[in-house]
Amino acid sequence: MKSRYKSYKTVEDLPKLAGETVTLRGWVYKKTGKGKLQFIQLRYGTGIAQCVVFKNNVTEEAFAKAKALTQESSLTVTGKVVASGKAPGGYEIDAAGLEIIHISQDYPISAKEHGDSFLIEHRHLWLRSARQHAIMRVRAVIIKAIRDFFDASGFKLMDSPILTPNACEGTSTLFETKYFDLGKAYLSQSGQLYAEASAMALGKVYTFGPVFRAERSKTRKHLTEFWMVEPEMAFFDLDDDMDLAEDLVEYIVECALRSCQKEFAVLQRDISALERIKRPFYRISYSEAVEWLQKNKVPIIRKIDGRDVESPFPWGEDFGTVQEEALMEQFDKPCIIHRYPAAVKAFYMKRDPADDKLSLAMDMLGPEKAGEIIGGSQREDDYDTMLERIKEDKLDEADFKWFLDLRKYGSVPHSGFGLGVERVVKWITGAKHIRETIPMPRMIHRIIP
RNA sequence: UCCUGAGUAGCUCAGCUGGUUAGAGCAUCUGACUGUUAAUCAGAGGGUCCGCGGUUCAAGUCCGUGCUCAGGAGCCA
User: Fold this and answer.
1) Among candidates A284, A277, A250, A253, which has minimal Cα distance to A362?
2) Domain that holds residue A297
3) Which of A5, A190, A220, A327 falls between 20 and 30 A from A45, CA-CA?
4) Å from A294 (CA) to B17 (C1')?
5) Length A219 CA → B17 C1' (Å)
6) Residue A272, CB, less than 7 Å from strand B?
């Protein structure tokens, strides 16, 4: 693309420019000095180039400027590109001239270690560090892979509203806001119900946007605001739904492996664990999973009178972190668990025709303690049954009239799922905490920056 | 919301059964150095020991309380 805007040579261009004189712009990532020699690691975008300023090669003024530079000061530097085995990246700039744009004072993030709390308070600056760069680049690749996957498979992007009149699933706590004279509105926790309407209009659709959960969660895998992609497909049954989920995840990992080798090196990510992520993944039913838990003596722990009481895992309970992690320890690839008890799943999921106690629901759990990365189901498509479920869950019928219309006018079997982008980024990058996987995380005690 | 832990220099932390002027490394500033990449060496500055109240001759240390943060549970993607 030919740009009408200013275009500068950047660090990435250096290998092509050996022997030439270039002017680079950027920030000081690190600086070390040794008398008449100053070494500046110049940061621009995602690359770092070493610039060497030798006193005898530049004016006294330029050398004084080089000495005055501090971490994260901005500058332009002009010099010859030379190959050097000692320079990170293999090339360095032998500086001939140097101009300071701005001197940074007391930059708070040093090369030394910092605590979690300190770093997240300085998220706006933390993003400048190499590790965070790498995670953000992988995130961008993952998001592009998701869009490419759907766009190339006949899906249409259909955005869902963020302001909604009610809870989609009736369970999670919602963020509340005023909506003119119509009373309260809530920030969406899922675009799914709207995606169903879109799927009836366009066949195969996906929504991709931020969703909000006002749960008072305090864990390394929860955010109050996160990005979710939700495909919804007319005429798909649960098996189609699970196949699609596998195809998507396999494709995401494949793209990341193809485009993010440098990033994985920075992150010291074990690539071999990702190279194993090939279809078919594992697939077991909820009932099979419960049997496994019972056979392997993985208990359920309940609080009774403030004390932890262990008992064998009973059929009918939802899995907690303990059960999920125990199950996943046997797998080196994602595993889909399907056909959960209807009682622990959402009202809009279709019951299993073979067993009314079961929902045609599925969750995909990732390996390496990634946890739940996908949740989905075949949807209830019968008008009367859906109406009954809405009443059972004590939801306001008036809010769901339009949703019931989808079952009234040419209802068809359909399915979909939601994939949590940050959960996937966390798994693929090996980030310790989900707060590192989004530029500006929103968490229960954190809204700045 | 519940359980557990933490709060001492800009950052990361040490500081014993209460005791005299509260320490280290890094960062910052000054000086030396032509190959650094966590540079090295010499020197300097830097503290409301989270707030409030209490016990005591004496509190960073003990007690009470409040605030802030972290990890986990539940909920979920």
Assistant:
1) A284
2) 123-437
3) A220
4) 50
5) 38
6) no
